[in-house]
Every structure is written in structure tokens, then in C-alpha cells.
Amino acid sequence: MTPQKPDTTEIAIVGAGPAGVAAAVIAARAGAAVTLLDENTNAGGQYYKQPTLTESGHKYPNSLASNIQQGQELLAGLNHPGIDLQCDTLVWNVSPEELVLYLCGPAGARALQAKRIIFSAGAYERVMPFPGWTLPGVIMAGGAQLMLKAQGLLPGRRFLLAGTGPLLQLAAVQLLEAGADIAAIVELQPRAEFLRTASKLWGHWDKLGQGIANQKKLLQAKVPIKYGHTIARALGENEVSGAVIMKVDGDGRPIPGSETTLEVDSICLNYGFIPATELPGIAGCAQYFDYNFGAYATKTNENLETSVAGIFAAGETCGIGGADVALLEGQLAGAVAARQLGLDPDTDEATLCQKQLQARTVAASLGKMFPVKPGLCALATDGVPVCRCEEISAGEVRAAIRMGVVQLNQLKPWTRVGMGRCQGRICGEILRQIVAHETGLALQEIQPFTARAPVKPVLLEEVGGAVADTGELTWEDHVGGYGVART
Amino acid sequence: MKAQRINGIERGEPITITVNGKEIQAYAGESIAAALLAAGQRNIHQSVKGGAPRGYFCGMGMCFDCVATVDGNPNVRTCVTQVHPGCIVETSS
pTM of this prediction? Predict the structure, then answer.
């Protein structure tokens, strides 16, 4: 590829969710030239995903309308001459020494050099495998929310929501208001855990209020909430036609004989979230193990600077905290980055820092209350695929573990887990749970997959520049279904 | 199982797209995955090794389970790709 001079900007922000947008607005108002990059078609991230159906007048049900409205208010701040918002643009690599980002977007492949980089790439949903979990009709709970709010589509008729944490109840309310029938919510934690959560949130009336309002709506609609239960199996040949749920013991292990079969056409899963750390990982930013959420996340100092000079991280990529934390951290990172460039943002960073730490404390106590329990690994019986892309079964993984292959970077070449299109984003955390369960190692002793460029599949013909045309085979023929995607 | 477009939510212009040779109704601004689900096609992709049915899963472009060939381009994530008039979708499943 002929080397090209990179485009330049002052502050490059990767990810236009709550954190990225907040950072862009603060920095641009201080006078910085900001380039805000996002892989999606619109800014807002998943949390503030905006409907793409029409320009206005969507008439959404209540529980969705307020979220969409808040998002619109935040996104209005992007109408600033200092912000260059580039959507449909994937940042697929980063060079930390020169602070250069490698982009792939509507204008083709480009490089962008910045004086400061802020990574605000958000999070992914955490799920756990069970027989039938790859069937069409089993979807992530956040994926169901996206269908509702971005597409105005109810992705099924009769739902089971399964996993752990407050998102299940919120998603159930949203589905209900959109006209769905909810067969049950299956919550891993025993009921007592929910009450303990409530006591931890004492004083945080908005959070507590939301939870109580959701429970009230579910009670009115007579939706059964099965505490201390798990989804055990999705039934159906080509799509979901039912679900088996089971009671669990204290470790999350399903109790034999407790099976109940439900007639449903859709199953929504959520076991919390996992920080998206690929780009900070490639940049060499240090990580820490977040005990509250059981996952590695990007380490920062109180100013949200990572261990790599010039690179900041804000929001979920620094550890799961939710949208409130992301908004505060975005502002803080944007303000500190702008100030380092000699600008004078209209913020008080010390106050922001304090507020952000308070919000993190609330989020942490929530995280602690809804852990994934190791006994759930029993549901991944030997025939169940763990790596959905490469179709590697739990049995193959266990056989490798018995051979002493216990780190993810070893399991990968040994079994091919994590080598498919999703690049381990789904199986990575599942594998850490299985290894911990099989070996007794602590979760923090099992390192996540090493992130490598490109962080998402890209077309070689785009990022590789001019590829020699041999006349016989194209690059697409060579790489076929593995590792290329036009997006 | 057909997904349901929620009543009362304003939609864009009606668009016709072709899925495996058959015309289906979609609306401007919809994702291809939404149009497929609304037309009753949940089974979008056949897994490469086992030939198992796969469909809309993460909804945010990370799992690659809902990929299809769109206008001749393979491996397009239907959940993050919008429909356009004359759009030709071929699913492997």
C-alpha cells in the first residue's frame, strides 16, 4: 500500500455513545477540533440508539420514548462547528506511538492522526450458553431493545427473558408496552439478593424508583418473575418454539427434577455487560480486573488517562458503569484532553471527578449483586457450541483444558475458539467462566484473548490498498467466508 | 414466526426488496434484519461447519450470526445495514 499522509485532528474520539458524545461536546465548546468516529450509521451508541425510520413523530411507548428523547437532547450538542462526526466508520487499528487511528468508512481506508485519543467504545452483552442457544429466536435482551427502539419492531410474540440483573425487567416492561406477551422472567439470583440490592441503593432514589416502577408494571401485567432460576434449554428445530427453565442452587447449578417447560417463540438473554477493550488493548493500554463485574477493563487514572501517553478511556471500556457514569466520564475526559491542548473548558474537573466516582460506586454495588455463577457452566453440556462462529463445542474445550490448555490465547490455536468472525467477543468471557469452573482458577487468573487488528472483519481490498490482481482469483475468493465482511 | 411492526409508529416510504428471489415489503430506514423478521424469516444464516440455522442475535453488529449476501456482497451484517430500494438479499439459510 502506498503510504498516505494521515488526516489530522486535535481530539479523536472512538465511539459516539453517551461517553463519546459528552466528550466531543465539552471539548468542541472549549475550542478543540474534534473528530468523533462511530461504526454505526448514527450517533447515540446502543443506549441512546435513535430510530432510523423517519425524521420525527415516532410515537413510541412511554418506556422507550423518554430514553429516545434524552438521547435527542444529548445528540443536539453535536451540532457544533468544531465536531466532525464520521459515522459508518470503523476504527480497525491504532498506532499508539504516533496516535494514529486506522479507519475504514464511506471514504475508504484512511489514517487519522490526533493530538489526543479518547476511547469510548462501550460494552457488549454477556451471555452464557445452553442447549439450543444458537437457535433463531434466542436473542440478546439489548438486541430486543434495539429492535423496539430503532426499528419499531416487536421481534417475537411470547417472550422469556433470562439471565441476571435489572436490564431483564426493564426490557420486559418495554416489550410489554410494545404489545408482547411475557411468559416469565428468569432471574439467576435468589429473591433475597434483589432486596439486598435495594438496600445498597438506599439514597439513590432515581435508580431505586426505576426498579420499583418496573416491578409494579410487571406485577400489574401478572408477569411471573422466577428468582433463583435459569434458562436450561431452548426448544425447536429451526427456530425457538419453547424453553425449559430450572431452579438453581447457590452456585447457579441447575437442580435436576426442577424443569418447567414454557411455550415461547422468543428468548432474550442478558447476564450484564463486558467492556469493549479491543482498541485500548491493541494500543497497549494497561488493564485491571474489575472484581465487581468479573471482567478485565481499561485502567485509567483519576483524569481518565490510560497508561499510554495521549490516550484516554471513558465509559464502559473502563469498567461497566452504565450511561450515567459514561456521560460524566465523557465530560471529564473531553475537558482534561482539551485543557492539555491549552484550551479552557467551561467545567470543573474536580467536581466531575467526584461525581464520576460516586456514580461508579453505585454501579459497582449493582454489579456485585448480579454475578454470573459458575454452576451455570453445567448447562454447556459437551455437545453445546461455545464458540458460535467456529462451532467449537464445550466438550472440545473441556478436552483441551484437561490437556492443560487453560489460557484463552492457548485454547485459540488448540481448538480454533475465538478465530471466527466475532473474534471471541461472545465466547471469550464464556470460556473464562468454563476454564475457571473446570480448573478452580480464579477468573482474574484467566487472561482474555489478546486483541488484534483488524478489530472487526474488514475487506482486504479496502484496508490493504491496491492488491495485485492475478486475474484468476480475487482476494474475496481467497478469504471466502472467513474474516471479510462488507459493512 | 412473524415479527410485528409496532402499531402507531410512523414509518418511512414503503420499499420493495428481494429476498431469495421473492419480493418482500420493507420501509425506508429499516434494517435488513428487521425487514426479514417482519416477513417471518428468522432463519437468516446457515452456520459454515454444521449448517445450523442462525438469526438475529446481538443486534449490534458484533456476533455476525445474521450475515447475508446483499447486492452480491457476502457477509453483510443485516442488523446494521439498512434496506434500500431494489436491495437484493440472499440468505444462506
Answer: 0.94
